[in-house]
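Exercise 3.2. Students should predict the tertiary structure of the chain below and write it as structure tokens, then compare their answer with the key that follows.

Predict this chain's 3D structure.
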Amino acid sequence: MEHPGPLFPHSPTPERSSSLFARAASSRWLFVAGLGFWTLVAIQSIAWRFYWTQFTVRPVHLNFISRAEALMFGIAALLTPGIVYAARRFALGKSGKPVVFCIHVGASLAFAVLVKLLWDLAILPMYKTPWA
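Answer key:
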């Protein structure tokens, strides 16, 4: 005897629930991987900048470096889901069309410009400007 199906057509069947679980696990894994990546990059950048500024006339305080790098890589981490979406939506492997390549280049440029713009706006209060 065959299974008649769910009482409610939109309720999760075993097939649907496993794909929902797989999607959730995939999203969670991507979130953790992205956050872990940007955290490691930020730690490396903080250590590198702190080390190299120690050889200057006026070394930069670790507190300032940490805040600046946390802003930079925090912004990049917040924008990463958009990059992942664009990469999945316009995958290079699906077609060899130049339009898809141009979309990737455009998205990369937009990501870089947006990170820089948001970082400049966020870091501005930390600097004493000559006109303030």
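Discussion points: Residues 91 and 100 are 7 Å apart (CA to CA). The chain has one domain: 14-126.
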